[in-house]
Amino acid sequence: MLLLDSNNAPTNTVYYISAIAYGTLKREGSLDLSALYRKVSEYTACKPVSFDFYMMALDFLFLLDKVYVDRKGNLHVH
Q1: Which structural domains are found in the chain, ordered by start?
Q2: How far lies 73's CA from each of 11, 13, 43, 77, in Å?
Q3: Tens digits of per-residue pLDDT, 35-74?
Q4: HSE-up of 28 (CA within 13 Å, CB side)?
Q5: What CA–CA distances, in Å, run from 39 to 1, 4, 5, 6, 69?
Q6: What is the edge-to-edge ordering of all strands in the sheet holding 75-77?
Q7: What is the end-to-end Cα distance of the chain in Å, rounded?
Q8: With contact defined as beta carbons under 8 Å apart, do 54 and 37 qualify?
Q9: d(CA 61, CA 22)
Q10: Is the pTM value of this prediction over 0.70?
Q11: Which 8-state DSSP code applies to residue 23?
């Protein structure tokens, strides 16, 4: 779900997690899926990131054509 939910904290949304993932990829250059998940989880240390929300956030970034995967499986920012 991409819409903000009034019953959910803003930091537990696809928008927020995708922003963290995009910023992390921009800083780091390229990361694989699990390394990026660890970095995103470290950033949001107060509450663990659901892997389902993390995958939806990456799908969101792919749909916006902001990230791509190379032949080795690493994620990169366009």
Answers
A1: 11-77 (1.10.10.10)
A2: 27, 25, 22, 13
A3: 999 999 988 877 778 899 999 999 999 999 999 999 998 9
A4: 19
A5: 23, 23, 25, 27, 18
A6: 30-31, 75-77, 67-69
A7: 24
A8: yes
A9: 8
A10: yes
A11: H
